[in-house]
Structures are given as structure tokens and as C-alpha cells.
Give the backbone structure.
Amino acid sequence: MWLNFPVMSVLELTDKQVLSLVRQLPTKSKRTALLALAQEAQVRRDERLRAGEAQLRRVAKKRGLDWSRLSEDKREALANQLMHED
């Protein structure tokens, strides 16, 4: 123990080893693991979407536009314009 905390070892596994271990789990545990991974992926997607929208709002504001008032078509046009700028 270090400063009254148990020391945890770090086990490094390859992706193949992790998959092999997951495949050995009972069906219910596999489902639990899959759901946990899916939830984590959803959180990351949501974070990226919020960051992307915030960035689009800033760019729109710099161009004198109010993102909240833009129609879906205008938003899409602005995003396309940004993707094709040099």
C-alpha cells in the first residue's frame, strides 16, 4: 500500500486479447459490456455534436448571422460553404 491506498496493477492487453476475454463472458455480461460501450460512444458523439454546433454558432456570429434564427437549409448552406473554403 502506498499512502493507505491499495496499489493497482495495470494489465496491458491487445485488442485481440480483450475480445477473446469478452467472448468468454456469459451472455448477460456480454450484453452489459456492449451497452456500457454504446453509452460511452453516445456520450462522446453528443460532446462532439455540442462542440461542433458551438463552433458553427461562433462562425455564424462572426459573419453577422444568428444560428438560432437560420432555417435548416441556411444552416446546411453555411456548413457546406465552410467545408469548401480554402
About this structure: The chain has three helices and no strands. The mean pLDDT is 92. The radius of gyration is 22 Å.
